[in-house]
Design goal:
Blueprint lengths: L2 E8 L3 H8 L6 H8 L2 H9 L4 E6 L14 E4 L3 E2 L14 E2 L2 H13 L5 E3 L6 H11 L13 E6 L9 H16 L6 E7 L16 H13 L1 H5 L3 H8 L7 H8 L11 E11 L2 E9 L3
Parallel strand pairs: 1-8, 2-7, 2-8, 3-6
Antiparallel strand pairs: 1-10, 3-7, 4-5, 9-10
Helix pairs in contact: 1-5, 4-6, 6-10
Length: 289
Amino acid sequence: MAHITASVYTSHVPAIGAAIDLGKTGEPYWQSVFKGYDFSKQWMKDNKPDVIFLVYNDHATAFSLDMIPTFAIGTAAQFQPADEGWGPRPVPVVQGHPDLASHIAQSVIQQDFDLTIVNKMDLDHGLTVPLSLMCGQPPADQFEWPCPVIPFAVNVVQYPVPSGQRCFNLGKAIRKAVESYDQDLKIQIWGTGGMSHQLQGPRAGLINKEFDTSFLDKLISQPQAAADIPHIDYVREAGSEGIELVMWLIARGAMNDVAGGKSPKLAHRFYHVPASNTAVGHIILENPF
C-alpha cells in the first residue's frame, strides 16, 4: 500500500519566488532566507518521494470571489504555472497523479468531507514557491519537478474559512485514503502558507515571533493543541493572513502519531524574520517505520 513518509511545512511568500526567478538569492537581504533551505534541498534528494500531496491556497488565480471552494483537489494530469499579473513563473509544468488524486477524493468524500474536484486549474506562487524552495530551480535541460504533485487548495482568503480542527481531521482522512491505495508509493504531504503576517489595514506588516514559535512548538509535539487554536487567536496574534497556518494542520493530521503510531522525527526546523512583509517558517517531520 501507499504510505506517508514525511510532512513538510513552509511559507510560500511570493517575493521569495521573485528573488529566485530574478537571481537575487545571493543578495544580503535574501541570503539568510535561502540558507535555511540548504538542508531541505539535500534532504529532498535523499528522500525523494513518488508523489507530493501539496496543501496551499490559491490567490485569486484559479478561483475568484465568484466561486471559492473550501477544499479543492486537483485531479488533472498536468497543471500550468499561473500568470499572476507579470507572466507565469519560469518553472516547470506540474505533473499530476490523476489516479491517486481520484482515489483520495473518493475515500475522503466517503469519510464525509466535501471536496471540489478540479480537472483544470493554473497554479500560482502558493504552490510553486514551496517547490522551488525544496527542490531548487530545475536546469533548462531537465525542466521538470522531481515527482508528480497533487494540488490541494484550501480557502483561507474569504470568510468563513475552515477551522484548525476541521483541517486536522481532514489530514487524518487523507492518511486513511493514502494507506488504502493499492500501489506501493512513498507520499509526502506538505502544508504551506503563513506564518504571521498582515497585508492591509493599520496592522499591515505585523509579525509576531512569539506566536510563530509557539505554533511551531505545538505543531511538532502537541498537534492537538495546535488544532485547538481558535480563529480569533490567529487574527489577533498572527494577523489577518496568519490564518493560512490552518493548512499546516492538514499535513500534521496525516502523520502516523495522530493515529496512534510513533512520534515523528524532527529532521529540520527554520525560522527567519523578515522575508518581504512576513516571517518565514519551515519544518520537516519524518514518519518512523
